[in-house]
Specification:
Elements (H helix, E strand, L loop, with lengths): L14 E2 L13 E3 L5 H4 L4 H33 L11 H5 L16 E6 L2 H8 L5 E5 L8 H15 L4 E4 L4 E4 L6 E5 L6 E7 L2 E4 H20 L7 E4 L5 H18 L7 E6 L2 H4 L2 H7 L4 E6 L1 H11 L19 H16 L4 E6 L8 H21 L3 E4 L5 H10 L21 H5 L8 H19 L5 E3 L2 E3 L1 H17 L14 H19 L1 H6 L2 H13 L7 H5 L5 E2 L8
Parallel strand pairs: 1-17, 3-4, 3-14, 4-7, 7-10, 10-11, 11-12, 12-13, 13-14
Antiparallel strand pairs: 2-8, 5-6, 8-9, 15-16
Catalytic activity: glyoxylate + acetyl-CoA + H2O = (S)-malate + CoA + H(+)
Keywords: Glyoxylate bypass, Glyoxysome, Peroxisome, Transferase, Tricarboxylic acid cycle
GO biological process, one term: glyoxylate cycle
Amino acid sequence: MVSFETFLLTNNPVQRKNSGTMGYDVPEGVDIRGRYDPEFSKILTRDALQFVADLQREFRNHIKYAMECRREAKMRYNNGGFPGFDPATKYIREGEWVCAPVPAAVADRRVEITGPVERKMVINALNSGAKVFMADFEDALSPSWENLMRGHVNLRDAVNRTITFHDQARNKVYKLNDQTAKLFVRPRGWHLPEAHIFIDGEPATGCLVDFGLYFFHSYANFRKAQGQGFGPFFYLPKMEHSREARIWNNVFDRAEKWAGIEKGSIRATVLIETLPAVFQMNEILYELRDHSVGLNCGRWDYIFSYVKTFQGHPDRLLPDRVQVGMGQHFMRSYSDLLIHTCHKRGVHAMGGMAAQIPIRDDPAANEAALELVRKDKLREVKAGHDGTWAAHPGLIPACMEVFTNNMTNAPNQIHSMKRHDASVLIEEDLLQSPRGVRTMEGLRLNTRVGIQYLAAWLTGAGSVPLYNLMEDAATAEISRVQNWQWLKYGVELDGDGLGVKVNLDLFGRVVEEEMARIEREVGKEKFKKGMYKEACKLFTRQCTAPILDDFLTLDAYNNIVMYHPIESSRL
């Protein structure tokens, strides 16, 4: 994993531009290297930056220690070890404790919509009819300075109910309905830096910037307008161990004390989207028990994490990614244990993402896609999930209907679906190798999706429609690590009768052919203007690297960092 101190020294130097003489008013030790904008300066106030800097100074050593523990665990797995339940915390798993009661404001979470913090998206998602909108600073956002700062402006305006958007092409004005979804915010993971803000000479921690700026500007109005005395509400990504949840709990305690609000006001749902975290679900909830409103099955990142965790295990090869669904034993076991754990502790067990998007020019194909969504959501609600995710507003009615028809008018299933049968699941159930075959089309699809997603990400889009699915960083990560795994171990493509083995020559031909296909599909003009060649270079390098990088986006981040030296900031 690239450290905060060294990530800026990698292959691609950040871009630098002059921005004139205007500057932000910053407290001591804070250096803003992003472009000055008068609207951004209303977010990056001296007091808001002081709040973020205080969080950074208090918790940075805890974060560095947690990242070092991740590296040590990775070494164990690469040397043949396996993640598993920690004997030292058996007393937590077997104890009779529960989390704080779920606030009434978020008791009903049957359908949640997710998306980036783009202005029009924020309005449409809050108006979508979903119970919750998760506004995303993480996998659905390309974290350029412009995207991040405009995202904070948008969320401030949404909480204040002043947000509007004029679509000039359609001559349409968007504004909030009277009734809107509850707003949750997902900051970035612990591992990601914010290179446009330096604190005491090093990049700030991305998630503390995301959390700190949003909380500072929005906590008071959110609690009045949306939270019914609670909030703000958050989703927490990419955790691998309960020590990381403990840091978040302490951040929440610190923010509540600073704001003078009751302990337990801030509430968060943790995404269980790494393989090590599935063995820490009780411990994560225990650390956050005053602030928790559940766990979520982040299933796409979970598949990515399975490959990453077992990168040194040649007997853990994934089949084509389209075959790694919830029917696989290790995936079903993960979902069942999450439901049992959450309901035992009195909080929500949220289901996974429906990534389909409407196919407007093919009604038959659209109905077939909707039927797949209905079947997936029926499986979730019957298993005991309290709600689910959708990537597009067009899916919300179908998802809502399935959950409503199967939940007997209750807002959730916390007390009615305990899933005691899942208490017998053991480590082997959660680690079982997925079954299936590997095909040339699987290799091609991984390559095509990975390159196109990365090309969009480099130009500012983090949520990208590809082949009737809404792709984010998680699916691009699956594409990358599966290609890397197949190349490393020279797997045989055994599912289509070809019998060829994956090697550098074959992969090189596939990349060349898929780039030609991408150019045909998007058109020569878009291909020429886009960053497909740069994305291809990055993606190919990642897939063929001798050592697997932990995150695609951390390597690619240097390509979107843009410094604007200024003359008048007070540093």
